[in-house]
Amino acid sequence: MFTFGKNKTESRLTGEFYTNAIGVMQGAGALGAGIDCGDIPQAGPAAPASAFKTYANYVALPASEAFRIEYWKLEEAKIRRQPPEKELSRRIMMVVGGGSGIGREVALLAAHRGAHIMVADRDVKAAEAVCAEAREIAGKEAVGCVKIDIRDRKTIRAALDEAVRQFGGLDILINTAAIFPASPDGVITDVMWGMTLEINVTANFMLTDEAEPIFTAQGIDASVVLTSSANAVVAKRGTEAYDVSKAALSHLVRELAITYAPRIRVNAISPATVVKGSTMFPRDRVIASLKKYNLLYDEKSSDDELRNELARFYARRTLTGQPIDPRDCAQAILFLAGPNTPCTTGHIFPVDGGLTEAFLR
Fold it and tell me: What mean pLDDT do residues 204-230 have?
C-alpha cells in the first residue's frame, strides 16, 4: 500500500486510517459467518462476532453519498481555515555538512519553512545534534540524519538512498562541506593540496553525479546549491590551494547547470570569510590570523570571543561593515534552492558584505 500526503506525518496517518478501514471491512464480513479474522493491525484487539447481538455484513456507501460527505460545506470550511502551506512544504532536502556552521543554519531554517530534511555529515554526533534541534521545530518525522563521506561514492549513494527510504524522494541537494588547508609552518604539502581539491571540487561532482539519477527518475524539478567562496576571484598569497579549489567549484556549477538543464537547477553561494560556527576556524587558526593582522587579543578570551574579534576585522573591509553570519548564507542558499528562483541556474550568489575585491570583472 502506498499513501500520500503533504508531509510524512499526513502520509502515515492516511495509511493508518486506511488500515483501520480494512479492519472494519474484514470484521463486518466475519460477523455471523463463523470466520475468525484475528487481530486487525492498528485496530487493537478485535471483538469476536459473538459479542454482537445483531449484525450485518459490511456494505460501502453509494458513490454519490460518499461525494456529499467529502464535499460537505462544513468540511470545506474546515479546510479553508487551515494555515497556508509553508514555502518549502512537500520538499525533501539533503544538507551535506549539516552538522555545523552554515549547514546547521540551513537545516534549522529549512525546518522553519516546512521542508523534510536529511542532515548528512561525516561527524555523526554533530549531525544527530542538529537533527534533534530541527525536530524540535518541524517534528520528529520531518528530520533524519545520516553519516556521509563525500570522498566516497559508496557512502554518498547510501546517504541518498536513506533519504529516499525515509521521505520518499529528494527535491533539493545542498552541500556546505569543505576544508581549508593549514599547517603550523604555513607550508601546504602535495598531500594537503590534493586533499583540498578532492574535497572542495571532486567530491561536489561525485555528490551531484550520484543524486542526478534520483532527480531524473522522479521527473520533477529539482535544485542543487553548492558553496563556493569570495576567494575564488580574489587572488592573494598563502591560500592558493583553497582559492584554486573554489574557483574550480564555481566553474563546475556552470558546467553542471548546462549538463542537468532543464529539470535540475544548479547554483552556489559565494560568501566572504564566515568565522562564526565554522569548523575551519579552530582556536589556533583564529589566533594565527589575529597575529597576522596585528590585532590585539586576550589569551584568556573564549573561542567565540576570539572568532568575533576576527570577524569584526574582516567586516571592516566590506561596504556594509557587517560580519558574515552563517544564517546570512543559509538565507541565500534557501532562496536559490526554493520556489522563488525558478529561472536561476548556473549562477554564483555573493554573500560577502560588499567585498569590492570580489566584484565581477
Answer: 97
